[in-house]
Structures are given as structure tokens and as C-alpha cells.
Design goal:
It is built from 13 helices and 24 strands. With 406 residues, it is of the alpha/beta class. The strands form six sheets. A seven-stranded mixed beta sheet has the order 1-2-7-8-9-10-11. Strand 10, helix 4 and strand 11 form a beta-alpha-beta unit. The longest helix is centred in the C-terminal third of the chain and has 22 residues. The protein is elongated. 48% of the residues are buried. Bound molecules: MU-OXO-diiron. MU-OXO-diiron binds next to helix 2. The site of MU-OXO-diiron has 9 residues, from helix 2.
């Protein structure tokens, strides 16, 4: 593969990972890319490396532009191994280069590598590096999403190299948003953005708002956003910034997700009248069986909508394990501004629905209690109650959603 010029003498030199389906437990149905960028200026500068197994690809791409040994600066925006595990391999090629990294990045890097071999210059927000024609401005973005994280703004190109922020796990032939629109659906691209945000950035909404405000106050003009995964925002960088602001403000579709699992189809049978009740209130509804769905997809579907109904059978007086796992994972992502309730079947003691609602309350979600249960399997009377439960929950979600409409 060849490097792709994204701005005059600035190139994408990354790698496409068509095959990755399990990204530290996050299921990546569409693969991903590890993007890094080469500035072929008076001082040849590489921004980020790639995952170590893909170093051959980035070195080939760099060679299509310049002899790799000519690189004198290596900027490390983020040390997570999908970007930084290739540093050792790259530094064998350019042992003379200076690494530019945040203080916390340096402290993390020395846990992974023997950094005493390397020239390292610690940078902080506002520091700059002039490569010749171009000036690089570093902005630390701690906890977006690791302590070390920073972004690099190439002033003369109005280019924000944004590391994980604004990225997507999407391996495609397209490198830019406008190409993607031509060769695939824009809806798929937006879905990949939401998937990434929900599974990686959901806990950091307040920090995201603050950092975007800070960038706006600095008067930084952004003509292009080049993240470390997925496509580059060339045609409409404002679109991805607005999507992030909307998600950080808690924007969601006025819609309901039924997220359930089932042992002997009883909880599953309850989903049908509940769904019909929701539909009859004029609201759209997605239904997801947990053991048939990747965890990261269930998280995304939860995040996309204003209301969710958690369906769980009771087993040994507690939630069904896959439902417990989902709620445990969701809790770590600290969701906000969502309404939930629960339903499910039980044999004798019950307890699963109550436990699911308690887990949702601990997350601080708007919880509608007591949910609904049926014994063994739903009778026609239970089904009528489920239908009414669906209608009632839809009405509550509509009312709750009003405060988020701007
Ligand atoms: Fe793509 Fe936080 O690594």
C-alpha cells in the first residue's frame, strides 16, 4: 500500500487491520485501522506509530514517500498498545530521533519499554515544534481517554491529529469521509462513530465538552480532523465535533431498546407484547438478545436510545448471568440521561428483576419500578399486562425525553 497525502506533504502512513474482531473484548465487526501520519518537512516527523504487528505496513508506506531513516521527530500522542506497541520496532529504524510525549506518556512508556535508549522530550499543552513549513502545537487531553493522551494540531494546515478521539473501528478502502459517503452508507459511518463513543468514551462526556470548549476558546481553526482509527474527516470535520458534543450532552433517539436474555423462552415471550405496547404508543423499538449479540453492540444500542428495558429470567434468586455481565459492563461506562425498567420470568422465589433494577439505580439511571414479572411462562393475562407495561414505559420515556430536546 502507498501513503495517502491528506494535506500538502502530510501523509497517512497507517495500517488497515481487516481481520481484527476482538479488540480487547470490544467486538469489532468491521475491523479497524491504526492511523499514523508523516510530515515530510525540513525535519521529517512521524506522528504516532501503529500496533507492533503492523509496523511493516507503516514502514512500507513511509518508504513510498521518504527514506524512514530521515525521520528525526516522533510524536507520541497516546501510549495504548494499539498505537504505541510499534515504538520499539520503529525506534530501531530511527534510533537518532527525538520522541515528543506528555509527562504522563513518558511515565507510562517506561513501564512498557527500556526508554533509556531514546531521546525523549516531554511536552505540555501550548508547546510547539517547528518542522520547517509546519508548526505543531501540542494539547494534552488527560483521561481522553488515558492519562497520557494528547492531540497535535498542525497550525498551517489547520489539521487536528486527534488520536483516539473522533475515531471509529472501521477498516475500509476509504480514507476520507467524503470517499466513504460514495462507497458506503453514511449511516454506517455514523453508527461506527456511536459504537466507538459508547464503548470507549461514554464515561468522559464532561471532559469532552470541556476540551472542545477549550479548543474553541483558543481560536483554533480546524479544516481537517485525522484520528488514529478509521476515516479522516476532510469534508465535514464540524459534523464529527457536533456529534461528539451531542453525545456528551446526552442526546439520544426517542426510542426504546429491549435488551434481554432467556432460559426457556418465557422472558423472550414477554418481549413481544411489550414491543407491541411500545409500538402502539408510536415509538420505535429495537430488541436484542444478549447471548446472540456482541457485548459492545448491546452497549451501543443501549446508548443510542433514551429508554431501555432489561429482560432477565431469575436463576438461583439472581439475574441471569449474561444480563448481570451486561449491567456490570454498562456500569463501568457510567451512562447518564437514560430511563430504564426491567422485566422477566421466574419459577418460585424471583429476584432477577429486582436485582437488575437495583443495578440500574446504582448507576444513577432514571429507573421505573417495580418492572414486571411473570411466573414460569406468560399467560394471556400476563401478556396483556406486558402490553400495558410497554405502553406505559413508552409514555414515560417520551415525557422524560422532553428535557433533552433543544
Ligand atoms: Fe486506539 Fe486508546 O487506543
Amino acid at each position: 500500500m502507498k501513503a495517502v497525502e491528506i494535506k500538502p506533504n502530510i501523509y497517512w502512513v497507517g495500517a488497515i487491520d481487516w481481520g481484527v474482531r476482538d479488540f480487547h473484548g470490544y467486538i469489532t465487526h468491521h475491523g479497524t485501522t491504526y492511523n499514523n501520519y508523516l510530515i515530510n518537512d525540513e525535519q521529517v516527523t512521524l506522528i504516532d506509530t501503529v500496533k507492533d504487528d503492523f509496523c511493516y505496513a507503516t514502514i512500507d508506506n513511509i518508504k513510498s514517500i521518504v527514506e524512514p531513516k530521515k525521520i528525526v521527530n516522533l510524536v507520541i500522542n497516546h501510549i495504548e498498545p494499539d498505537h504505541a506497541s510499534g515504538i520499539d520496532t520503529i525506534m530501531h529504524v530511527i534510533p537518532h530521533a527525538t520522541i515528543y510525549i506528555s509527562e504522563r506518556g513518558k511515565r507510562g512508556l517506561e513501564r512498557y519499554f527500556d526508554i533509556t535508549r531514546w531521546n525523549i522530550k516531554v511536552v505540555k499543552s501550548g508547546d510547539t515544534l517547528t518542522t520547517g513549513k509546519y508548526t505543531l502545537l501540542f494539547l494534552e487531553t488527560p483521561m481522553l481517554h488515558w492519562p497520557d493522551s494528547m492531540v497535535t494540531y498542525v497550525r498551517e494546515a489547520k489539521l487536528l491529529i486527534s488520536q483516539d478521539a473522533f475515531g471509529q473501528h472501521l477498516a475500509t478502502a476509504a480514507r476520507f469521509d467524503d470517499e466513504f459517503i460514495e462507497c458506503a452508507s453514511l449511516r454506517d459511518l455514523e453508527d461506527a462513530v456511536i459504537d466507538y463513543y459508547a464503548n470507549i468514551l461514554m464515561p468522559f462526556g464532561q471532559l469532552i465538552k470541556g476540551k472542545i470548549d477549550e479548543i474553541i476558546k483558543l481560536g483554533i481553526e480546524i479544516d481537517m480532523i485525522a484520528p488514529d482509527h478509521g476515516i479522516i474527516w476532510r469534508k465535514d470535520p464540524g459534523k464529527i465535533i457536533q456529534m461528539y458534543l451531542d453525545m456528551a450532552h446526552g442526546k439520544a433517539e426517542e426510542k426504546i431498546a429491549i435488551i434481554y436474555d432467556t432460559m426457556w423462552h418465557s422472558t423472550e415471550r414477554m418481549t413481544i407484547p411489550i414491543m407491541e405496547g411500545i409500538k402502539d404508543e408510536g415509538m420505535d423499538c429495537t430488541v436484542i438478545k444478549l447471548r446472540a449479540t456482541a457485548m459492545s453492540t448491546a452497549i451501543k444500542e443501549f446508548w443510542k436510545v433514551r429508554g431501555s428495558l432489561i429482560g432477565t429470567p431469575t436463576i438461583n434468586n439472581v439475574m441471569f448471568p449474561s444480563v448481570a455481565e451486561f449491567l456490570y459492563h454498562l456500569g463501568g461506562l457510567r451512562p447518564k440521561s437514560r430511563m430504564v425498567s426491567a422485566f422477566g420470568s421466574f419459577g418460585w422465589g424471583g429476584g432477577g428483576v429486582k436485582e437488575a433494577l437495583e443495578a440500574c439505580k446504582r448507576m444513577g439511571l432514571e429507573t421505573v419500578e417495580p418492572g414486571i414479572q411473570c411466573q414460569y411462562t406468560p399467560t394471556s393475562e400476563d401478556e396483556t399486562k406486558c402490553y400495558e407495561f410497554g405502553r406505559s414505559f413508552a409514555l414515560k420515556v417520551k415525557e422524560y425525553n422532553k428535557q433533552f430536546l433543544r
